[in-house]
Amino acid sequence: MSLTTRAAVVESAGAPFTLSDVVLDDPGPHEAVVRLVATGLCHTDLGVAGGGLPFPLPGVLGHEGAGVVEAVGSAVTGVAPGDHVVLSFTSCGECRNCHGGHPAYCSTWLQLNLLGGRRADGTSTISRDGEPLGGRFFGQSSFAERALVDERSLVGVDPEVPLASIAPLGCGVQTGVGAVWNVLKPTTGSTVVVLGAGAVGLSAVMAAALTPATTIVAVDRVAERLELAKELGATHTVDAGSAVLGEAIAEITGGQGADGIVETTGNVGVLRQGVDALAARGTLVVVGAPPFGTEVALDVNGLLGGKRVVGLTLGDSETQTFIPALVRLVKEGRLPLHRLIGTYAFEDIDQAVRDMTAGKTIKPVLVF
Predict the structure, then answer these.
(1) Pairing between strand 154-156 and 84-87?
(2) Using the 8-state DSSP alphabet, how is residue 137 labeled?
(3) Lowest pLDDT segment from 12-16, 50-54, 191-195, 353-357
(4) Bridge partners for 146 per DSSP
(5) Burial of 15 (0-12, 13-18, 19+ CB in 10 A)
(6) Which residues of 251-260 are buried (b: 16+ CB within 10 A; e: fewer)?
(7) Are 309 and 300 in contact (CB under 8 A)?
(8) pLDDT of residue 1
(9) Residue 240, SS3 per DSSP
(10) Among 24, 53, 245, 265, fewest CB within 10 Å belongs to which?
(11) pTM: predicted TM-score of the whole model, two decimal places
(12) Alpha-carbon span 51 to 257, nearest angstrom
């Protein structure tokens, strides 16, 4: 039977989140009903709510959910009622990249996660007063007390780990960690620079601290975030408001430049400075996402020393193995994610939005 639940609905582009009763469709064969315990708030949610992407509104967003499975469809085999799960992105499971262990580059990723708002067959998962709403955001739409979740978004996790402490693993944290572990793969003695000390950037700092890299540089304009970066593993910090990035990196590295850079700000001017600050054969990972169509000018001759610029989605993670590994690191205290999290009651979602926008909270997590 269909299920009524409370959700935070965005009525139109630029409108605030409004709590409303919605109806979830019956779970299909490859879907599960999850009772949310917590869900992270991400800048992607705010970008879509603001009209930055053509997601169908009114709709329900949220893509860093964590909760308990209540019911499963007839074909679901990976989880069962009562299991604790972290919710992440979905994918088709059939294309070349999905089969190759790179589901973040699924051939239908944009439609399934960001743009469609419905199942692949066009049917709706959420409605209100008989009218369909945009849903299935990242296969989950977790800004709700209960969510109808695609099977490929479900990741079973250790029930001993508090769900509010690991909800952000579904997007922001795995993105920052994956940029370092899956793309940069630092070798002994290498230098990793992280541009931007928000949730993704600080996750990259923590990840770099678990590698053989010996120089880890955090760059930001906020002194408190730079201090936190030091506590999380940065060996050096650069105040972007008072220093020239290239000069600062050259001084730290003895003129060599950075072996790896993670760019999280979405500012193309910062991206350009990062590319220029790379060492020969260095790699810059583009994580921050400016509006569609944004371009950046690069010095072509400057790239001929073997520099690489690599785009990244969601850490290029295979979620079924990657997220449980991160959960274990959180449990053992080796990934101190709690240092980033501020918790808010679900009904205080708009306050959480204001605090994140103002920079007061690095990673808001809504709790139910």
Answers:
(1) antiparallel
(2) G
(3) 50-54
(4) 35
(5) middle
(6) ebbeeebbbb
(7) no
(8) 61
(9) coil
(10) 53
(11) 0.96
(12) 38
Say how far apart CA 159 and CA 174 lie, in whole Å.
19
Q: Give the CA angle between residues 27, 31, 37 to the nearest 5°.
A: 95
The pLDDT of 9-28, averaged and rounded, is 96
Whole-angstrom distance, CA of residue 62 vs CA of residue 19: 13
Distance CA 217, CA 236 (A): 5
pLDDT higher than threshold 80 for residue 150: yes
DSSP 280-343: EEEEEEE----STT------HHHHTTT-EEEE-SGGG--HHHHHHHHHHHHHTTSS-GGGTEEE
Task: Determine the pLDDT at residue 293.
Answer: 87
Spatial contact of 89 and 314, defined as CB atoms under 8 Å apart: yes
Each residue of 166-183: pLDDT tens digit? 999 999 999 999 999 999
Task: Provide the 8-state DSSP code for 110.
Answer: I
pLDDT (0 to 100) of residue 222: 95
Residue with the two structure tokens 């909800």: 167
Helix (H) or strand (E) holding 356: helix 349-357
Q: Which residues pair with 276 in a beta bridge?
A: none
pLDDT at 221: 96
Q: Which residue type, as a one-letter code, is found at position 287?
A: V
Distance CA 176, CA 164 (A): 19
Average pLDDT taken over every residue of the chain? 96
Instruction: Say if residue 140's pLDDT is above 70.
Output: yes
Quick one: tokens of 127?
């409605």
Both structure tokens of 141: 């739409």
Digit-coded pLDDT (tens) for 266-292: 999 999 999 999 999 999 999 998 888
Q: Annotate 186-234 with DSSP letters as a single string.
A: PPTT-EEEEE--SHHHHHHHHHHTTSS-SEEEEEES-HHHHHHHHHHT-
Distance (Å, whole) CA 56 – CA 69: 27
